[in-house]
User: Fold this.
Amino acid sequence: GPLSERRLMDVRLGELPAWLATCELSPQGLLGGVRKAWSSYYDKYINVKRGGPAGISMLLAGYCLLSYGWNYQHISKISFLVSV
Assistant:
């Protein structure tokens, strides 16, 4: 398709200056680009149509690692006292 209708990820490095020249750099154009980027991010990562146990298990694993990291010094002091 035309260069102006391509997404940034579809533009080759040599075509980048020409692609940037076709972009609208007004405040309204930039706001429209931000909206479009947020919409694609939301659809890809947040508004997932098919969920499963993987998302919940990743959330729980992240919580366990974060909790362990927060309490590491406390846990290491207790394990030292128990082993003495």
